[in-house]
Amino acid sequence: MELTLGIESKNEDTIVLEFEPPNSGLSSLRKLQKRTQRKSKKLESPSSTNLIKHSYHLELKQKLCSLNSSRDNNNSTTGYVLWQTTPFFIDWLLYHTDSNTQEQNFNLRAFVFSSNVIELGSGVSCVSTVILCNYLSNSNYYVVTDQKGILSTLKENIITNKHEIIHNAKQLKSVTMNWSKPLKESFASNNEEYSLPEEFFHIEVEPLDWEYVFSQKLPCFVEKALGDTYSRNCTILAMDVIYNDFLIKPFLNTLDTLFKKWESENDSSRLTKNDTQCEIKCEKKGIKAIMGLQLRAQDVVQDFLLEAVLEYEFNVQVLHSDYLNSSRFCFYVISPSTQ
Ligand SMILES: C[S@@+](CC[C@H](N)C(=O)[O-])C[C@H]1O[C@@H](n2cnc3c(N)ncnc32)[C@H](O)[C@@H]1O
Fold first, then answer.
1. How many angstroms does the Cα of residue 225 sit away from the middle of ligand 1?
2. Which atom of ligand 1 is nearest to the CA of 250?
């Protein structure tokens, strides 16, 4: 691919991104700025997230010199910088009503917010991680993955921006980053119904290279996120990860492996009595991959879709809205043929 097409900033090693709801005085589009003063923020309870009014201010480090290196991360260097697909998707998911409407029995925002999330090929930026962790308070895991060489800067970015995770009612914890973040005192005292949580919400960072998924055991927290979903959904998030033909098969194999693992873990013959009662009472839960592709080369997108549908027999649904249709991105919801 034309290597720099779709990079958020080609000049700055530190990017500041603002996410603002519409009618907040600023445009709903993110403002890309040089370092600015942090605005004070008012805490709101998670119940107000039906209409998302929260804004976010992220400072992200990227490594432009590694992007152009032929040695770093075995010459797989696109993950060293922030690309436009993820911020565009998060802005749409949070602030556009059409991400929150029911289509063919499926509400994308509701599905993601009631999921454990596994992010594939996240790159160094932690935009989805930090922002979505605010809305997954009924879930237990956000597991963010990429190739090994990308992870130290990703961890640094999560730690720099973790103060932006303020709306999750659970105690936040990360074994892989060795931290535990207590609830904000003001949040706990202002929201009696969200009194101290018994469970932890994990934000974990793990290496997952699609080339080796067959030969290696899945990382520990990826497995946990897949095995912990009977009462919740599982979302696999993958933004701008298919940009050449070589990536298609390893990526689809990885999706297939994750879908099959989820299905075996959530096989109804293995359910406990409580799970079965939950199955009767609640809507049955599912696993779906939400993918965003930046439209660069039509043949790559076409090959990807053909292989996903014909070889892997996945269900592939295209997300449509006037806003999405007029962008340079295409978004898909992919699920196993059994769902
Ligand atoms: C264009 S970047 C997109 C990064 C990020 N999702 C974003 O939107 O900013 C593609 C990502 O796919 C990752 N990737 C490429 N090949 C991979 C592989 N074999 N296994 C895991 N991740 C891979 C890269 O490291 C990189 O983070």
1. 20
2. 19
- Indicate which CATH number applies to the domain containing 234: 3.40.50.150
* Per-residue confidence (pLDDT) for residue 192, from 0 to 100: 47
**Which CA distances in Å does 168 have to 113, 134, 164, 177, 202?**
11, 5, 10, 18, 11
Indicate the number of domains in the chain: 1
98 located within any domain: yes
Amino acid at 231: S
52 lines ligand 1 (CB under 6 A): no
Output the residue whose Cα is nearest ligand 1's atom 7.
83
Vertex 173 angle, CA 168 and 174, to 5°: 130
* pTM, two decimal places: 0.86
Tens-digit pLDDT profile for residues 263-279 = 998 876 555 555 555 55
Tens of pLDDT along 7-45?
888 888 999 999 999 876 554 444 444 433 333 343 343
Q: Which residue has the higher pLDDT, 191 or 90?
A: 90
**Residue 233: in which H helix or E strand, if any?**
strand 233-239
* Contact criterion met (CB below 8 Å) for 199 and 172: no
Mean pLDDT of 287-313: 95
How many whole angstroms from 192 Cα to the centroid of ligand 1?
41
Q: Are strands 141-146 and 200-207 parallel, antiparallel or unpaired?
A: parallel
In a domain, 195, yes or no: yes
Say how many C-beta atoms besides its own lie within 10 A of residue 103's C-beta.
Answer: 13
Range of the domain at 104: 84-335
Residue 61 lies in a domain: no
Structural domain contains residue 145? yes
